[in-house]
Amino acid sequence: MWKDLSDLLWQAYEQFGFLPLFIQIALIFIGLAILATLVAYGSILFRRWQGYVYEKRVNFITPKIEDMITEQVLLNEQLGSVPVDDIEFDPVPLSDKIYKKPWVRQIVIDVLIQYRKNFRGEVGDLLRKLYIDMGLPKDSFDKMKTLKWERKIKAVMELTQMDIPISDVTILPLTNSQNPSLRAAARNAYIQLSKNDPFKFFDIATEPLLPWDQLDMFRIITTTKDIQIPNFSRWVSYSTNKSVVSFCLKLIAHYDQKSAIPAVMDLLNNKDHYFRADAITCLGKLSAEMAEVRLVKIYDHQPLICQIEILRAVGQIASGKYLEFLKHEFSYSSNFDIRMNAARAIINHDSDESRVIVNELMNTTYEENRIIIKHCLNPLIK
What we know:
mainly alpha, 20 helices, 0% strand
């Protein structure tokens, strides 16, 4: 049989040699296409089979793991009467051979993390102790040694959720990873786990802080308890990473770090007008009256985006010194956005003088401007 098959293949090969070249090329491409299709379908089927097997394993072992956690943690009689660090777990269930299997240990980690998201206080601390006593941090750290970025991300998230310190030597290089997802996970982990200098990675950051990353980091920074908040002006003055400086400006405004005002004012000389706009926004939120005179002075030489931010900043500072400037911009500018923001800035002063100007403008200006003022006076419209 094998001899007949080999003869048949040899005859096909000989016949193939007599075919025109373009037909030979076409047949080769057809063969490659068929092979690629078979490989693709085989890969899909294999992955589905793997997922099916894993799901069956999860469904089988998860109830056993949940029972173990319930007995060891949730129903632990020592909980509440003994310090968490002194509580001893029953060694018999934990010594079960099934907990030596890597896939089972991974499911234990996943279940513990899920439980810890729902429980705080002593119960959360005891879940963390169980994670440590079962030697599971080693499993997480082992994943960080792999070359696959998705496994590194999972490891970082596991250690972060369980509040396990990661050495700077291990985590800091990841904060500059070329992979955006890994970079974001490492930065968020560093902020939450570092007790002394949670923003140290700003010093070495060369990759940008993407807008979504900034939003996520801002949430973590403002919700993490006992986080050490530095003076962010140090990065405003010395960092060469524009996204880091832009993010620090937002944090300076949020934490009302008025000591950073001189450093922020230095950015008004920057050639990047988007950068200048961020600095002007920050000065406005800080109510930096010392910067007001300079903002008005540079106003005429700025692009539209910066002019609008200057008008907003003058309205937020609301010293009353530049109401005539705002009135002039509202009355004579041909740009709708300029007039809108100038009107809002005047109204934001909320003083007798500003109310006099508003009434004067309502009586003397044309209909479109009156509509703008009425719009800005509506407290329901921000």
